[in-house]
Amino acid sequence: PPYSNEELEKIKEYTCAGVVNRVTRKEAKVYESENPKYNVVLWDFGTKENIIRCLTQRGCNVTVVPADTKAEEIKSLNPDGIMLSNGPGDPQENKGVIEELKKVCEYKIPIFGICLGHQLLALSQGAETEKLKYGHRGANQPVKDLRCGRVYISAQNHGYAVVDSSLPEHGKLSFINMNDGSCEGVKYTKFPAFSVQFHPEACAGPLDTMWLFDDFIKLIEENK
């Protein structure tokens, strides 16, 4: 065979180290809305610009902060809501972020997590993540909203997933992938937060789940 069993195991265990630190911004930056109503902190693990656009279009002044920002620093910005961005790599590698995020959840500030942010939020609450045998890539991944049974088409690009059976009692599975049944979303009941594995802001991707940003605004309004 072209590869030995040992070589195949090394390929299987392949991971990229320190990738969030390479893509996060190094200093905080504020993006202002033309019609500001809310202040949102966007925790940058490799954020896409369209997340910022989706927030500013909904009346949010957005303060984008680096991945290594401490919980106390985020609290000092007095945010109405906190956005956890997408990003690359193995979520379990970001132990410092997970510890700070655990503290942030105790502030009971509304949180919305996307992709890596979704995974980090789950890890901060004691859940587990796993490497998928086949990663989810592309703009045509079907996901099912378990609240109403509707299926949406989503854009995804990830190789890890939250293990739904490991979710805490206060973490409720909200979306599943229709291809492999894996976790695609979680709603938390102990504090105001929800997260999704897919990209609702996807540009150039389907717009099916853009309403999740509206749900985030509603969550902010309910907790002001």
TrEMBL record:
InterPro entries: Anth_synth/Amidotransfase, Class_I_gatase-like, CPSase_GATase1, GATASE
Lineage top rank: taxon: Bacteria
Name of this protein: carbamoyl-phosphate synthase (glutamine-hydrolyzing)
Keyword Magnesium: no
Keywords tagged on the record: Glutamine amidotransferase
GO molecular function: carbamoyl-phosphate synthase (glutamine-hydrolyzing) activity
One Pfam family of this chain: GATase
Organism from which the protein derives: Candidatus Limousia pullorum
EC numbers: 6.3.5.5
Alphabetical list of PANTHER family matching this protein: CARBAMOYL-PHOSPHATE SYNTHASE SMALL CHAIN, MULTIFUNCTIONAL TRYPTOPHAN BIOSYNTHESIS PROTEIN-RELATED
Catalytic activity: hydrogencarbonate + L-glutamine + 2 ATP + H2O = carbamoyl phosphate + L-glutamate + 2 ADP + phosphate + 2 H(+)
Record-annotated Glutamine amidotransferase domain positions: 42-218
Family: Belongs to the CarA family.
Protein's pathway: Amino-acid biosynthesis; L-arginine biosynthesis; carbamoyl phosphate from bicarbonate: step 1/1
